[in-house]
């Protein structure tokens, strides 16, 4: 009986070790198993005024070198407690999305979103190609990212004829942020220059004894959606700023 119980115990330790110490690479693959659309939703007020100003929107440039192509998952804390009748584990990772998590090309997406927002705003006519007597809007994305924690924890209580186990996976809350540095140009002269930024926090996701695959995909989706919302806020701010500037200088 002692030998049998010892074998059972070793098997439990092996199982728990495998569950609790899931590799960082495996977690990364799971979180990035599908890329997600930015899903920009246009809900700003539509004014459609008579616009007399043409603005050419140059393709934005991502200048934040911390934002990587592939994203990353890093382990920040982990422990495993093996006791004769009780085993407990916990691992904490930090997840950062990269361009690989997003379906669209980010600069092209932002450029197109500006054209649509300018049409809704009605203060100017925007285009991605040069228009006659057009001003030029240049945009640098000097801060961009969506990050958050991912936690796995659980325990097994082991008896002679039975055992009790519980495991929980928590993703988030995550934080998405972006900052745009923009310049409105006429030839080589800067007419208007400023920075706008936005931040969005996601709700935490919790899975108990359920499909971790679903939770991880939902986490990536939430982070990408939150990042899209920061883009939206920044685009609306810049569009409004340019509209105010042009109205003040209509006779110049």
Offer a quick outline of the entry:
With 252 residues, this protein is an alpha/beta fold. It is built from 4 helices and 10 strands; from the N terminus they run H-H-E-E-E-E-H-E-E-E-E-E-E-H.
Describe the structure.
There is one protein chain. This protein is α/β, with parallel strands linked by helices. It has one domain. The protein is built from four helices and ten strands; from the N terminus they run H-H-E-E-E-E-H-E-E-E-E-E-E-H. Strands 1, 2, 3, 4, 5, 6, 7, 8, 9 and 10 form a ten-stranded mixed β-sheet that branches. A hairpin with a 3-residue loop joins strand 3 (72-82) and strand 4 (86-96). Helix 3 (106-121) crosses helix 4 (212-248).
Parts with pLDDT < 50 across at least 5 consecutive residues:
1-21
Order of helices and strands: HHEEEEHEEEEEEH
What's the rounded overall pLDDT mean?
83
Our estimate of the beta-strand percent is: 35-45%
The structure class reads alpha/beta
Please estimate the helix content.
Answer: 25-40%
> What is the makeup of the main sheet?
10 strands, mixed
Total beta strands: 10
Total discrete domains: 1
Tag the structure with descriptive keywords:
single chain; 252 residues; alpha/beta; ten-stranded mixed beta sheet; 4 helices; 37% strand; elongated; disordered N terminus
Task: Indicate the topology.
Elements: H1 2-20, H2 24-31, E1 54-57, E2 61-62, E3 72-82, E4 86-96, H3 106-121, E5 125-127, E6 135-158, E7 163-171, E8 175-186, E9 189-201, E10 205-208, H4 212-248
Parallel strand pairs: 1-5, 1-6, 2-6
Antiparallel strand pairs: 3-4, 4-6, 6-7, 6-8, 7-10, 8-9
